[in-house]
């Protein structure tokens, strides 16, 4: 049951009806039951045990820390740290074992091979828990907040469980904090037609992005990356430029569905995207792209590293030896390196993610910072008006390309394939492919391509309009008839131009004439 | 209150929109008055006006001509059959038809009870897409989803836009105008075969071993029984039949005959030598292809069926006697006769061509 399936909508409606019909105090339990049911329908039901272990360990850990603070005040720091580290390792251990065992085996085998030792490699095929990368970070943030005493522990086990597995966000985030989501899940929610309508509209917009744009773009991008030798030269660069739009409409479309679904229950999840393609730098881009992951890594990885005694001491030493600037920059860059490494490996158990979605952006950001004085001087010499629209567009395009290069590795099968794709991009300069109909041979015909272009422009215009607040609020503020017309038109566009279902194959109807 | 009203209005607009999308996007299988016309035409018939309804697959719709029967006997009939129709769909179509008509007889061509070659989900869609939304449609969709291993999701039958949205590139004027057309279709579900197939030399079969039967699928036997029971329950006489086929085995006949005997219902098999001869079937001139009858075959089959229905105890002779001439049917008959002229000419030409081919072969 994917988020864009009819089954999910039916599931959402049924859950919504139960949620508002049942007594308000039972609402969290209704959502918990729905979340478990969702888990069983989407994932392997038996893997729920991993999620259960995580929830139990974090619940027990937070309660134990609370007990220690109350009853053992003199030893609380040490004992709480032991509890915290134990539970943290338990949760990260489950994640590491289920998701990264093969990665570790491959890397170890590679190292052993370097030593010219002959060993046979055996990989494992353990089914990971559904949404493990998301819920682990989410539940660890709760554990850490309780350890840091910025969050009071929740006494009700089921509410902690619901916080960990709230079904709309289970599969693809966003990664919420207990202070944002947990508190809302504890509250009672009255049915509000306006709210449900807003949620439904957002879901529809998510469907539009995912089904009308992303799925269509995927046809072209996948065809090119699947055969880089056949589709070389400008094909590769075209795919590289299209993929960011594809992944953005895919992921942000899913987020719209998730956030809209949660909104139908009166629950507001944090935004994960804020028009990232308008960013002027890659650093800004990542502040507007997968926001909750970026914030999580900053709050729970980078800042703790920077604040650690070792790093503070190292910073002091460097300041004394190389001056204030270097003393500040070196620890920051090392902490950022760890952050981007984590960002990369979180995306998947392959070096292509570590390099493509991690270290490449770290490198780009560091280079941006190092060469910032040079770039400023150049701007002054050339008298470039930095506030002009043209300069902004130039910066956004530059950022887009930097992101696109890293994202190319996201599509590649592995690191080597990513490098090969880039190499294929230089095999030939073949601009004729844009005029000789070659693009019509990749699964989309002329009508599809024209319609896709129109839809991308439409989504872009909506993004521009949505920079200062939600477009749906602007629509709602207009005449209700106008609003209704807009949403129904969008529904028609999704239904007609979306990529979904088995489709219509005229040949299977050949017997209609008999 | 105001908000609630606007929500209801929004919901209604969505439903209206989905209905209109369905009307536009579902293919119009209207080439030579195929399934779309058959089903819409059935719904357009005056309520409780039909004496006989034929059900089955393509062999029924090629084999029986209601206009021919009306001209010969005055019996008003309709062929509610679609190509490669599964017996599961036939059962639900019988239920649906009996909501609108009270026929004296239901004639079921039994090919759909024996044939397993349902050609993909296309045949299901042809059969069910134009069926009105009703419990019958829901049950039919659920039943075929359970029995057949198609990729189609049940939702695609209820919201056909999910199935046909890709057609936006091939929409024609007919897709937009069809819904406004007059649905009085004079062929009454019949499809005219004008081609010729003369490769077999069949003259019907004589049963040598009555115990030689073929294996029916469980669901086929179950749904045939359901049809029999339902007709009994509704007090409608059921006549099992099988139109003539150039290639036909006794095991097929025996299987159905056994079921007919067990349930004490008649079975008129045109493939039995004596019926074949009585009906005047000719393998050289009466078949459109290896499975279907052409105009000649349909005329003979229908004519024989008319006589059979009047001569046997189906309660039709009384009904026909008291019924008054129907202007609409008479007009449709004229249109049918005009429609048939070029088709017959084409058939004659095809027969002449075949005769020439055979003559050459013999030389």
Task: Outline the structure in words.
The complex is a heterodimer of chains A (514) and B (363). Chain A is mostly helical and 514 residues long. Chain A has three domains: 6-191, no CATH class; 192-269 and 430-500, no CATH class; 277-428, no CATH class. Helices cover 71% and strands 0% of the residues of chain A. Chain A is globular and about 75 Å long. Mean pLDDT of chain A is 89; it is low at 510-514. Chain B is mostly helical. Chain B is built from 17 helices and five strands. Chain B is globular and about 80 Å long. Chain B starts with a helix and ends with a helix.
Q: What is the percent of helical residues of chain B?
A: 40-55%
Report the end-to-end length of chain B measured between terminal Cα atoms: 88 Å
Number of strands of chain B: 5
Give me the strand/helix succession of chain B. HHEHHEHEHHHHHHHEHEHHHH
Overall pLDDT score of chain B: 89
CATH topology of chain B: Rossmann fold
Q: Would you tell me the structural class of the helices and strands of chain A?
A: mainly alpha
Largest sheet of chain A: none
Percent of sequence in beta strands of chain A: under 5%
Report the mean per-residue pLDDT of chain A as an integer: 89
Question: What kind of sheet is the major sheet of chain B?
Answer: 5 strands, parallel
Count every helix of chain B, treating DSSP H or I runs of 4 or more residues as helices.
17
Radius of gyration from the alpha-carbon trace of chain A, in angstroms: 25 Å
Tell me roughly what share of residues is in helical segments of chain A. Answer: over 70%
Poorly predicted ranges of chain B = none
Give the oligomeric state.
Answer: heterodimer
> Superfamily at the CATH H level of chain B?
SGNH hydrolase
Number of helices of chain A: 20
